[in-house]
Each structure stands twice: as C-alpha cells, then as structure tokens.
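Fig. S4 source data, part A: sequence.
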Amino acid sequence: MVQIPVTVADRDSRPAAGLKQDNFLIFENGREQQITTVDNEDAFVSIGILLDLSGSMAPKLAAERYAVLQFIRWANPRDEFFLVGFDEQPKLIADFSSSEAELEAGLANAQPGHRTALLDAIDFGLEKMKAAQNQRKVLLVISDGGDNGSHRSEGKLLDEIRKSDVEIDSIAVVDKYALTLEERESTQVIEDLSRESGGLLIRVENPNQWGPAAETISKLLRHQYVIGYKPRDLTHDGKWRKVKVKVNSLPGMTPLSVYARSGYYAPSQ
C-alpha cells in the first residue's frame, strides 16, 4: 500500500472539506491507479520549525517569533514540535515538546547571526525528524530564501527529501524592492524543495502577513487527506515512481489547488 498525504485548498488558501474518494484521481508513472482509501482524520503531527536567524532577518525577528506562536496555537494539543535556528549553521533551540511554554522559551533565546545556511538547516531538520513519535512529519521553514552558507548541495538534499516522508511547508519572505536578480529569485530553491515534498509555500512581503500565513498553513495541516492505493506495478526495483494527484471539485466550489509529494522510491527487496 502506498499512502500519499494531500493538501487541497481553494483560491483563498482555505481547506477544501467534504471531498470523497470519487473526487480524487491518482497516477503513477502516468498510469491511473485504483484508490482504496481516503482518510481525512486530524492525525497527530511531528513538526520541526526552521527559523532564519541570518543578518537579513534581524529587523524582522519579532514578527518571525509571532508567526511561530500563531502556527503552534492552531496546532493539535498532542502535536510535538522542535525548533531550529539557522544562520551560518543550524542549531537546535528547542527539542521535541508539546509544551507551548518550552517552545516560547526557545524562541526568546533565538538571536540573529550573519550568513544563511538554508539547505544545511533543512538537512538538519530531516535528520532530527528521524526521532519523531508521529507518523506524519512536517518541516516549516520561515526564511527569505537566500542561501550563502550551506555545505549541502540542492541536488543531494532533494534526493534526501524524496527518500523521506517529510513534508516541507514554507513562508518565504520576499523583498519587492530587491535590486539584483539573485535577490528577487532567492525563494526559488525553497519553492522547489517544498513542491517536491508536497508542501505549500506562501510568499509574504510585509511582516504583518507572517502570522496569518503561519495560521493558514497550520489550518491546512489539520485538514489533509491521505490517499491509499496498491500500485499496479509491484516490481521491487528500487526505482523512482512519479505520482500525480488530481481533484474533481464539488459543485459550486471554487477552483482548487492540490499539493502532494511528487513520487516515491519503490522497495528494492
């Protein structure tokens, strides 16, 4: 059985509730598969929050902390969280906990640094997530998207994301007054990684938008669907299987956006 978490949102980024098995189509390597289960329960989630503490984020640190608290307050009380701050290297600032007070204490101790090791921070989060207690696993990244300090390459990290079952959601801080092309396109890396994992990316310009963006992502996590199917191709070849999920909207529903991981590796044995 292959299980694919799927987020479905309307054009206002609100969860699309009430969808049934008949509303979904799923394809593996271009071939339609027979869906056997669609689950919409609010399962517990293990969540790692990765905070950009580079110099460029220093003036926005208060807004960043507020966004994290908004995200946590909309979570299930039995979710577990860890916090990682990153500048030129990632650092664990709060270990797995369901206590809001412990997480707030970690946030209070977060201080800005200099360069941005975004890819290293995501790699750190993936490794930390191996100790998670819950089956559903999510990394939330809050960053301006630039990376000028990582040792990990995007290609190798992309492969690690494909091998994991971790969803990466992102709030990308965009500077509309950026002068260089590199600055204007700095969020492309984080967008690519989020899309590959089935995660959602929200771009914001004004720090006042960060809290609502975090709230939006937290609400969507509470309303995910999990699609189960038995692949038609049962070959144990260890190869990458590309997956595509489509949704037929309910009558009267606005156009929907679908977020699901791009595929999985078949077992090799």
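Fig. S4 source data, part B ends here. The chain has seven helices and 14 strands.
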